[in-house]
Amino acid sequence: MGNTGRVAGRASLAGWAGGQACFYNAPVRVPFSRRVPADLAPNRLAALRAAGHTPEIDLTASNPTACGLDVSPALLAPLADPAGLEYRPDPRGLRRAREAVAAEYARFGTAVDPDRILLTASTSEAYAFLFKLLCDPRDAVLVPAPSYPLFEHLARLEAVDAPPYHLDREAGWRLDLDELAEADGRVRAVVVVHPNNPTGSFVHPDDAAALAALAARRGWAVIADEVFLDFPLDGGPGSGRSFAGEAAALTFVLGGLSKSVALPQLKLGWIVLGGPTDLVAAAYERLELVADTFLSVATPVQLAAPALLRDGAAGRAAVLARCRVNLATLRAAAAGVGEVDVLPVGGGWSAVLRIPSVVGEEDLAVELLVEDRVAVHPGYFFDFPADGYLVVSLLPEPTAFAAGIGRVLRRLAAHLVTP
User: How many CB atoms neighbour CB 40 within 10 A?
Assistant: First the structure.
């Protein structure tokens, strides 16, 4: 058959499949999955930055490697271990790495069995594994609001719904247990972020106990994201306590090098399993199957994990000191603008400002970017309950942070002046 025949054959198949008159002139559209949003347009602030409005001071910076922290290159030397040339994958993660992770929980007064730990390439991957483990399509995982906006995307990619439950600001961002108790039968798990990003609130011990009891009664799992647990600022009830010791409900505790030693580029996270022995054993066996399907964790970083967790403590201390300095700067500066409140920061790398309603938070963020060349997050990015919040990172270099906060407060003060 010549080329003419091939073209005619394709045209006929196209007409049969989609009613097209000509294969080349009317191609059939690829049916992309609804797991990926149909609208990929950037939000207003991202569009401005893409158009060239680059901030001089970025108060949204969340990458510690780009914030001027002093880290010795020697920290990466363990990655050169020659044993990394040999590939003998273990879907759970190399035991020496799991033992090193288990030892970290002694700082929180919790004994963890290395055989209840599974390594992942990141916390995001840990969520993906857990959603695969716990949910069928259109099942639901409850996620907190306000909180980090990644949950919706992670859930959607697994064909899982992520309905929010609300944190009570007046009670210090405590869990709304009544709302949780009313959740429908599609729910398979509830996520808590301890401390929360960006509110910094720790899960109150009373709420943790009540949640475990509710989860056990309803057959839910608890997913506790503790990536910021190493960074207490104001502290508060729940600070210094890990969910890793939970025994009443099936519990998955997430952590990783990205935050714990401020090395996001090394891509190592972990899941610690807790709860009733039979449930933990069944969950671990199935998680191992999921992990064995991907084998995503690199051998060199696993071999280096004991040294990285030991020597990376200096980086953790540097981040904590930086955040405390910048939080003090923020509070001192905001004290001069009576209508602006810096909300309590239990832990983490962010601070939340409550601003007056004289200007919308997104409009203010746009003005700051375009006119003042300072980047901040409007609160709606994190599903705050109403307009009037700004979120800033506490990671930037202190001199730049102070200058950026000065520009933010001057812009706000200008809006507060009565014409």
Answer: 6
Q: Which of 306, 315, 281 is nearest to 101 (CA)?
A: 306
**Got the DSSP string for 142-206?**
EEEESS-THHHHHHHHTT-B--EEEEEGGGTSEE-HHHHHT--TTEEEEEEESS-TTT-PPPPHH
Q: Are residues 233 and 372 in the same domain?
A: no
Q: Is 82 exposed, middle or buried (0-12, 13-18, 19+ CB in 10 A)?
A: exposed
- Is the residue at 48 inside a domain? yes
Order across the sheet with 350-354: list the strands: 341-342, 350-354, 389-393, 377-378
Rounded-to-integer distance, Cα 404 and Cα 333, Å = 11
3-class secondary structure for 225-248? ECCCCCCECCCCCCCCCCHHHCCC
Instruction: Report the pLDDT averaged over residues 224-253.
Output: 97
Q: What per-residue confidence (pLDDT) applies to 417?
A: 80
Provide the whole-model pTM: 0.92
Q: What is the pLDDT of residues 311-353, one digit of tens each?
A: 999 999 999 999 999 999 999 999 999 899 999 999 999 999 9
Domain's final residue, options 282, 311, 340: 311
